[in-house]
């Protein structure tokens, strides 16, 4: 299907913005003894009340005035589709100056109220060219959204190392390249924010997702390094560094992932695509959540975002990381964990289909030719 037909016009903003019931999520989803939603993490809401008081209303200590983002410069990587595009639409509609990036911007219609510029964040010269262009055009960046990414799914023992390396290069090293190029363009006082798209995979490691999980864990370390460095040097910073950790989102990432066993993917692709279409969060909702983070005067630094009905399975599993030894984290027979067992069963069943060793006689990546085989991605990574 045509990208514009699927995602809607660039100027589209979710019609239910700021309207709807409060999220049906409470602290009761945390097992006894777990306090991650009370202390370490927050929930990135995309419906119900705003986290702050909008213009025209009287702010309070409990609900201070929203940040006015009109005229502020936002840079969003990976904005041709999905989360990046939905966020750009929403922020531009709120009056922000938005520059989104794409490896191939010429493939997409130019949006009417924000810019879509070229960036391949696996290439140093491309990152530098974008930074120079933004500096020459706007002089600074108020909000840096590290969102671009890719996905590779395959079993750990047999998957193509170059595919795995390219995933990490895009999702982590690429984000770090952009970070290094644009932090010098951010204000040294007043409003300034870095937001990155991590994942619930930064708190777990689902079967078949190793390189994706590695890259998302690394992004969380990057955020933590920002704060540990300033603390070690006893230096304050005006730049808030925030991570969102989505569960499944219905974006092109789920449809264009490189699969370690394409022969088997042909057998299960309808189930995979159907799962993303029916069970994943809509990207417009994530765009609304990003807007709310942007206007929140004091956002939580780490925020989960997923469908309300998914918290009941995801949060207990993540709580295990902080309350149980590793060998019990994924064990289905631990008391009080039927939903976790069901989730693991679903994940393991789905991704066992991509085990080349089990289904292809041990032949790496099932002997597939490009783009699934050994040569894909070598322009960025090189031979190993």
UniProtKB/TrEMBL annotation:
Pfam family, one: adh_short
GO molecular function terms listed in the Swiss-Prot or TrEMBL record: oxidoreductase activity
Keyword Transcription regulation belongs to the record: no
Cellular component terms (Gene Ontology): cytosol
InterPro entries: NAD(P)-bd_dom_sf, SDR_fam
Oxidoreductase among keywords: yes
Family: Belongs to the short-chain dehydrogenases/reductases (SDR) family.
UniProt name for this protein: Uncharacterized protein
Provenance organism: Elliptochloris bilobata
